[in-house]
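INFO  loader      accepted 1 record
INFO  loader      residues=400
INFO  predictor   begin
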Amino acid sequence: MGEVITRKRGSNWEYRIELARINGKRNQKSKGGFSTKKEALEAGTKALSEYNNSGLYFVPSECSYSDYLDYWLEQYAKINLAETTYLNYKKKIKIHIKPNLGVYKISSLNSSVLQDFINLKFNEGYSRNTLGVIKGILDTSLDYAVTVLNFIKVNPMNSVRLPLNRAIPLTPTRKKERIVISNYTIKKIFERFPYGHPSYTPLLLGYTCGLRLGEAFAIDIEKDIDFDNGFLNINHQVQFSNNHWKLVKPKYNSTRSIKLDSFTLSHLKKCKERHFKSITFYNEYYKQLKINSNNELNYIEGTPIHLLCTRDDGTYIQPRIMQHTSRVIHYKLNCPDFDYHSLRHTHATNLLDAGANPKDVQIRLGHKNIETTLQIYTHVTEKMQNTTIEILENSNIFNK
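INFO  predictor   done
INFO  writer      dumping C-alpha cells
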C-alpha cells in the first residue's frame, strides 16, 4: 500500500492503488481512460493522497491557506451559514484574503502576519464593519482547523486585534455618509416617480416604512400584508443568486411586523385591487410569477406568488430598477448623494427627531441592536438642539 501502479489498457492508461484490507481481503481502486501514462500517474497520486488523508485532497502540513479556505467554504460555510453570509464570505476571501495570505501554508500562519494583514486593510481605508467581517472569517476558519480538523494546534488569530476606535488610517475610511433627504427633495422625487410608475411603491416603502431594498421587492400581497389591522410583515428579502432572483431571510433574520400609516395602507389596498383586476384582464396572457422549491422566482414551475412589485401584465419589477431611478435623482433632481438606503436613513432620523422611542425604531427597522440605531441615525438636528436647551432651561435652578 502506498504505491501508484499504472498500465496501458488498449489505447488508454489507467492507475491502480492499494487500499486497506476489508475482512482480510485485498482492496484496490482503479480508474482508466487517461491519454498518457503521466496523466494516469498524476491522477493516481492525487487519489492516493486523498485516501491517505481521510478524503482530503491535500496533505494538511503542506496545505496552502488558499486551498484550505476552498475546503472550509464548502465543508463548513456553505452548510452552516445563510446563503447571503456564505456568498459575502466567498467574495471577501477572493478579494482580500487570498491575494495577501493565500500563498502561506496554513501551518506557517502566525499572529504577526495576520495582525499585519488586518492593519494593512485598516490603512487602506476599509470600514470597521468590513474589517470585522474579514477578521471573523480568519478567526472562524482557523478555529475550525484547530477544533475540528486538528490541522494546527493553536488558532493564531487569538491574539489579533482590530485597531482601536481612535486609530487614524493612512487612507480615509471608506464609509459612505448617509444623508437625510429634505421634505422638498422627497416631494420632487415622488412628483418625478408618481403612482403608477414601477419605482413608486418601493420608494414609498423605503420612505414610510424604512425597508431595505431587498425587503421592499419581496412583499407578498396575500401573505405579508394584514389589511384588517394595518401591519406589514417582513419575512423575506430578494437576492440575485445563480442567475435567479430568490427569496431569502431578511438581513440578521430580522423578520418583523411594521405598523402602517394610513396613506401607505391605503396605497397597498389600491395595489392589491389593481393586481387581481390585472390577472382577470390579461387572462391567459398574464405572466404568473411562481416560486419553486429552491425559493427562486420564475414563470415556469412552482407555487404561484403575488408579489407587490409586479407590472400589470405580471412581470416582476426587479430591484435593479432603482439604479435607473437613482441616476435620475442624482442628475435631474440634483441630489447626487441619494441611494435607496437614504430613504431608510431619512425614515429613522425623522422618527427619532420627532421623539419616537429608539427601541421602537430599532424594531421597526430590524436593527440587530439598539446601538446601531443610535449610532447611525441620531443626528443632532437643530430641533434636537433646541429641545435639549428647552429641557435645560426648565431644569436650571438659576432660571427659577
